[in-house]
Amino acid sequence: MEAAVWCLLFIPCGLIGVALYALAHDQNIVQILPESLMRETSGRVMTWRSDGDQGFFDINQSRLDALIEGLSDRGVTGLQRASFKLGSLSSRACYWVYEVDAASGSVVDAAIASDCRSRGADGASLSLEISRVNRLTRGVAKPIVSGGGVVEFVSRVVLIGVAVGGRFEGLSQYFRDELVEHGAVWVPREDVAL
Predict the structure, then answer these.
(1) What pLDDT, on the 0 to 100 scale, is given for residue 10?
(2) Are residues 30 and 182 in contact, defined by beta-carbon separation less than 8 angstroms?
(3) Which of 166, 83, 73 is nearest to 126 (CA)?
(4) 3-state SS of 133-177?
(5) Residue 137 reports pLDDT greater than 70
(6) What's the whole-number average pLDDT of the chain?
């Protein structure tokens, strides 16, 4: 009888402890996954095209489409592998192409091209807006260096972003029932090819 009473006291506490651990673990996974995908992604999305006298930076549209398609798939797959209690797993990956003032390095107006791919029930509602604005504020222009000094800036820049999210299931949903999400936006490494 005494064991039954102790079980009645400790089993709910144990279940709550497990639920809180799963909640903290899954929130951590959602926070680190976009940055992890960022480190695993290489660019090669811009090519310098020259006609002998002049030149321009050309965007590799098929590479960009494949890149965000893969990122959105890997976002959901990463959550499936690493989370305990998340359901409605979703991801969204986007790219933005901006014109850059070659003299000052500032971004000129709005994106000249952009596209997104979403996966999961909440994929379309995941937001990258704050991450994109923060990245633009920190500066995205790539300098062209000659003789140890900056001659000018690359006239175009590509930003890539990915957001992941999900909703808690089971006992964890009683502690947090809203969508848990996180996103990151970055300039791909080595995105200019000759």
Answers:
(1) 67
(2) yes
(3) 166
(4) HHHHHHCCCCEEEECCEEEEECCEEEEEEEEEEEEECHHHHHCCC
(5) yes
(6) 82
Token pair, residue 70, equals 């893969």
Task: Extract the tokens encoding 142.
Answer: 């790539």
Cβ atoms of 134 and 186 closer than 8 Å: no
- What's the longest Cα–Cα distance across the chain? 92
* 139-166 mean pLDDT: 84
Helices (H), 41-181: 61-82, 129-138
In the chain, the amino acid numbered 173 is: Q
Q: Which three-class secondary structure state does DSSP give residue 116? A: strand
User: Do 140 and 187 form a contact (C-beta atoms < 8 A)?
Assistant: yes
Indicate the angle between helix axes 61-82 and 2-40, nearest 10 degrees.
160
Spatial contact of 128 and 163, defined as CB atoms under 8 Å apart: yes
Radius of gyration in angstroms for the set of CA atoms belonging to the chain, rounded to a whole number: 22
Give 55 or 130, the one with higher predicted confidence. Answer: 130
Q: Give strand pairing partners of 149.
A: 146
Question: For a pLDDT cut of 90, what percent of the chain falls above it?
Answer: 32
